[in-house]
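Lay summary

Proteins are chains of building blocks that fold into shapes. Our project writes down both the chain and a compact code for its shape. Here are two examples, one after the other.
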Amino acid sequence: MPMTTRSHRPFMRVSVLLSLLILPFTTWASDWVVSVDERNGLPSLTRGGGPGLTSSFAFFGENWTWADLTTSFKVNAPGNYVLAGTNKALDFDLNAGIKKAQATTLTWNFALDAHRMKSGVMGGGIVFKFNPALFAGDMGEPVLLPENRGWSWGRNAQGRHIEMRFEPPLASVYFERGDSAEVRAFFYKDTISPGRQDIKAVLSVSGDVVLGQTTTERFGLAEPTRWPSDHIDWRTPPVDLSFLNAQEKPAGRHGFLKVSGEQLLFADNTPARFWGTNLSAYSLFKTPDNEVKQQAKRLSALGFNIVRLHHHDSPWVSPNIFGDRTLTRDTQQLSPESLKKIDWWITCLKNEGIYVWLDLHVQRALTAHDNIYGFEELPKDNNNNADLKGYAYVNITISQAMKRFADAYLTHVNTYTGLAYKDDPAIAAVLITNENDITQHFGNALLPDKQVPKHSQVYMARAKAFAQQHNLPEEKTWRAWEHGPAKLFLNDLERHFYADMIQHLREVGVKVPIATSSTWGGNGLSALPALTAGDLIDAHSYGGVGQLEKNPLTSDNMVNWIAAGQVVGKPLTVTEWNAEPFPTPDRHSLPLYMAGTASHQGWDALMQYAYSQEGLSGGWMTVGNWHAYNDPAMLATLPAAALLYRRGDVHPAKTNYVFAPTPNSLFNQSISPSNSVLLRTAMEKGRIQIAMPQTPELPWLQHSRLSSNVQVLHDPDQSLLDANANASTTDTGELTRDWQHGIYTINTPRTQAATGWIGGKSINLGDIQVQVKTANASVVVQSLDGMPLGQSQDVLISLGTRAIPKEDNKPPYYIEPLEGTLTIKAPQGLKLFTHSTLLQMKALPATYLNGQYIIRFDGRQMSNWLFLKKDTSQTTVLQDAKPIPTTTSGAPAG
């Protein structure tokens, strides 16, 4: 990719700095913050970083048909915003000017322009959803203002009060179906008359509720086009951590992976620990063979030692594992050409010491020619394809089709290795079905009111038999949406499917650990029992902006949901983690937070989603959540996190907490990180695990055996932190999270890091001092030679900031330059380097004083990776790499 000249200023200056002018950024003393949601321009309330109130637009045509309002939002200036929207279905435009009129008041001046008469419509406007967990004690229930003028919340909460008032009165303001947690404020009702309608909305707060900034305001209103462009070289890595895989080449040399209690071991009893990513969809089938080999080398150099192959069977991918989707009539035959591409990926990854995780089902779309019983009643997409999720649990022809796929896939002999997938120890694990459970997500699809009578008949018969066998009320046992007897039955039905599939896979010859499905998408603890049929528990978790700021006393974050899947006696893997929506501005923090937490909690494998979802060829390249390979924000800290996690720089927790629910609490009430303070606070100090109770109705559920050194806890509402805590440090003393300020630090002999809202702070760790002006950033300093930082002669410095894509959803990115200083204790005689070209590293001037290197970042140029080292003979260029005239992240153009 050609470089464009922007500036010839030196990208940084290294000098002694005796003082630093620090720029402030906004923090809030209160846990209760109202701000404008940039996704839709509507108000949002958070308490301790967790949701208290969310708002969204909702419009409906005749018979409640959805009428989408597309919107765009812009920050004009601090406290001044504009919103524009178009509703094609109902033929009107919506515009709004939004202002922070006073310290306690936000105003919206809506202008709705309807272009023609619409009658018989349901109408629409704004839907406000209140967190019912705040009703008891904190806020009470919301009340409606008279004459359709809005709502009020918190009149009984010691002065804490929020009110949303509309003038003139709206067409309708009401609680949805008598539910006091949802208020609908409709601009239109029944008819839409042509012409303009002006509505003013005023939101006022009082007590300890404060008006906060939008995400954009918090991170800074700098113009990204003035930042340096980032030109990631997608073929070669910015750092080389391939030494981590040197003893694993080829992958599988230690024999097949196995489960030993809560540990993953290889056949020769070598402990296994995996840091990985996903290759998904088109990356599997559209990457040229020479680039597959090159990308395998790059993945190894980035520190990965496991890759999950995903979306190989999904209908929107063509070709997929079944071949060209425009030519295939069914999903009963696997494409030899597609299999050969999978073969080559496995071979190239294996040669670089990288293991492979295989999914047996992700999103396979059944066709009318697949000979599926009851296919005619299954919901279809526009191409008459049916998703099997949920239905596989009651339809034997679907489970048989899944077994046939598994047979063909796992017994296929790799063209290049001569080994069937089932016989290749480089295959680390297999997953039966992706994000497909009936305990919480897809059970409702089988109910009698879903117009799937053949499937419902089987479901209802199984529910009746289960109820009669265990003397449970039949009228409760089939009600999939409720806790109680239904959760017992759903777990039993789901586990029966898993046990049958596992037995079949073992008969086929699968030797490695088998995962069932994943705990994902808000699954509570009542969804865990069925998953224990597998050899390990797998989890998926996605977080939004501000994960470090979530107050565990009141709010859940993404790592809480992973920890809630850690069952006593089972290893825990995470095959998907990421942030959304893209581009979350603080996503550079997540790899460090994930790696530090996983090390402390003892999780066994983590796989970021995803390295790429597009063909890796250097042609058409896009940016997005599923393309970490060219994202400077994620790549900035992914290698650092890999080194931290795989090397074991952070020690496991000293304290083991076990939450041991009774059958009554596990199955009869909803327990999850969203409502359990115990699950959130325990992991801030020690390790948290979940024990399975002996349950008469589920004789297959193994009662967790607890060791004598664990602290057993029974109350999900018990907090292990002080009620006024605003930060915590783990029992090892190595990890500190300050949620009041949104800062996370790692302090170990070989890795020291600060990430989050570190701007304006002076952060002192063992061997480094961080003082930066950039509001939100990551600074990581690591020893590459295994020595403690103060003695290391090979130091990696990883720097993460905002990275914002240019227009048209294509690379390169604009990358925010870091401003401030970094001080590092290290031996004298080292030199500072950054990359200049792919073939050499560029030396930078450095000053050494009193045993410290002091590095000043000038806020103009940026590199995500720097090196303090003595020997510069080694480069990060991989073998077989072809020189391309681009630079690594943010190196100076010219």
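And here is the second example, written the same way.
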Amino acid sequence: MVEPTSFSENTPAFLRVKGETAALMRSLNAANSPLGAPQHWPNSLRTIVSLMLASKFPMFVAWGPELAFIYNDAYAVILGNKHPHAMGARFEDIWREIWAEIGPLARRALAGEATWLEDLPLLMDRHGFEEQTYFTFSYSPARDDDGAIAGVFCACTETTEKVVGVQALRESEAKLRLATESAKIGTWDWDMRRVRGSWSKRTMEILGVEDGGEVTPERRNETLHPEDRVRVWQELAEAMSSGDDLISEYRILRPNGEVRWIASRGAIERDVDGLPLRSAGVVLDITDNKIAEAVLRESGAVAERERLWSLSQDMLARADYNGMMSAVSPAWTRILGWNEAELLSRGYAAFMHTEDAPPTLAAIAHMAATGKPTRFENRIATKDGGWKPIEWTVAPEPDGLNFIAVGRDLSHVKAREAELHAAQEALRQAQKMEAVGQLTGGIAHDFNNLLTGVIGSLDMMQRQITKGETSKIERYATTAMTSANRAAALTHRLLAFSRRQPLDPKSVDANRLVSGMEELLRRTIGEAISLKIVTAGGLWQTLCDPHQLESAILNLTINARDAMPEGGVLTIETCNAQLDDAYVARQRDVKPGQYICICVSDTGIGMTADTIEKAFEPFFTTKPIGQGTGLGLSMIYGFARQSEGYARIYSEVAQGTTVKLYLPRYYGELDGAEEDHGELTDDHRAAAGEAVLVIEDEAAVRDLVVDVLEELGYRAIEAADGPAGLAILQSKVRLDLLITDIGLPGLNGRQVVDAARQQRPDLKVLFMTGYAENAAVANGFLEPGMEMITKPFAVEALATRIRDMIEGS
């Protein structure tokens, strides 16, 4: 639909805005809508429509006896093919296929009862076919100028993607477990106090046993080769004493008499006094490698070598230190595609990736100098032009001239690792979105409350102006501004929680961060739970990703809320902490020093010692199926470790739980300090002749920025889209600063700037964005001479930023 660029004298002021739905409303009349022409609409309906058109949140109002349907641009996307014919039509006719579900809710609103629903499933037909959708929305009574209920107002959001994402989360969990089980690596677990253990199914297959019962020392001994039993138990005792990981290679004796070689690796968990509690690890059958190494070392018979080499799945070779191979196994051709003549006629370095050749040759040279075997990985060229990741074990021969190499193709292992990593990333993002999803219902409800403050205040201002009274206008304006700013804060908070990006550490004032989350946390826990925030005076700074810290606190708050179904007290405290050598000695991988501590405590059901022990493990959860992923606490622990900190749980059944998050003290300057803007002063005013170009497709925002510039004495030049702005930038007109929105039609803001800087390399640019500013900065979006301001912004903040940039400060 083509929107008019000018308006007639009869166009009401509230419809003199840009937008497709505003243009549709201007075209309504008695012939095509029960509402008739907008010139005759009541003031209360005009106020609601004005608010809707200025909002990016999907909204609609159904008004009058026919419940005529009016909506904004954001809601038009939800309508699909029903738009634009839905404008002014009857509510029931538009959504006839789901009227059985939403009709009763509309009738309740018309009776004076506000309702909201979270993730309501609706089978819609909006693109010519039925599709399953989910919505979180609130229906509220809409009143006319006399205070009588005249319609239904709705603010909504489509949550289909979130709900489908949670469903995909379940599938990702199953996929992750399947990939782990298919890795052909066995696992074991040993309780050192009970002197009992267990084996996984794959471990039992490796050992050749079928009984999956409890493992005792006697049963363990039966699987060990008699000659290796004493050594294996000695290695375990040494690891328990030293605190090192348990790494061992030994032989096993299967029940059928077969001898196999096993590589085992594990870690030992200790209690607060340093005593061993439990060990767990993995086992891998390495018999083929052992056979190949022994044969290559001990047998020089060509026939025997060829027979064994033909059976090996690994690449076997004999090579010299001058760079040539003298023998290769058939596995080389099967894995890489090169034939034997091609492999033996070229130096082995010629097959290595250029980045891997120097470290590989250095490792071979070190082996020649020390006479000891070594291991490394590199990439080897395939005949079809690709690369294969290979793990090498190389050992010198006694003659001092040659060495033996055993190469294992890691392609499947690397692919599996990539698949596991992708699944884990999807799970982390889904966990974050699940936390956001738990907020949406309350936020939709509270957002309507904030809109009520804005709508009501604007309505009262309109009535005051009509009566010619001005005494209360300032109070109403302040109320509307406060409610609008709170709504903006909610939007920014959701953007920060839901985005996907790597850790972006900054210096953080934890007191300010926790206090800034108070309103969000109160909304999350509900009225039955009392929230207490106790911040310590003189709290040190820390260095971490502030949004990840907010996410961690939110997850801990949700856990505490779920632990207090009947209500209780949630306390969040901050303090400085000194972790000395005595404390560190009882923990693993904790450095002594100064930390800040964020402590989240509840008076809920508490945890058993067994639950505390497993709480930080991925996928462990005590919640019912479908109500938790088991990733929340593991992500919090991972964030603390990545930030060089630590997390600890203290809990007693029926007494409550405390989670302490330790983050190291930071001695640098504090980032992101809040700017303190006052009133507009002469310091903000422009120098003679200074000109600023404003590119913004939203007319209301563009007009506001232009008004500020003109009030301060700048020459303001405006453009409504990227191509129009670029045309001005490529002219000879003087420009001291460019102010542009990032998301523009035609060309986006960054594309406009890149093109303009070809002629104006020193152009200073102030980007405007409605999204999280940190996401753009973290990805290297800003270059020298560029800054960013986040919508909504204060006029004083904008004026200060403009002056500072032009003066080069």
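What can we say about the second shape? The CA atoms of residues 236 and 242 lie 10 Å apart.
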